[in-house]
Amino acid sequence: MAKETGRKAIASNKKARHEYEVLRTFEAGLVLAGTEVKSLRAGYVSIVDAFAAEHEGELLLYNLHIAEYGFGSWTNHAPRRTRKLLLHKVEIARILDKLKENGIALVPLSLYFNDGWAKVELALARGKKEYDKRQTLAKRDAEREISRAMGRHLKGHPRG
Length: 160
Prior knowledge:
The chain is of the alpha+beta class.
């Protein structure tokens, strides 16, 4: 069997980009059981409620839901168990230093396979206020209208 190459997306947390202002991103590995990897390959995962936090000098991922593997036996995993994140000590120290600041959270943005290894993209993020979210939506809508108008203009349809 040939080895997997490249990056294959499994799940993304679109809500996180709306709720938080992303300051910096990190790539981390995950400690997984065999049935978890099989469920990930099938795409049975949800990272909407997931978050990362420090526990005894390590970073752990909480509330990541990986459904039980359908063909698993008594060796199946618990769907919402706590999973250890694999990062270098220097990166962990840097992240923990930033997490001490007020209002900073560590949220997963996406889950993917990179050359066959399960990885999670983590973001140091600051929560947005309600008016910031509205500004972001208004800016995106304005940009969309501008691009539509430009497209119509270039096609020769001034109004439509």
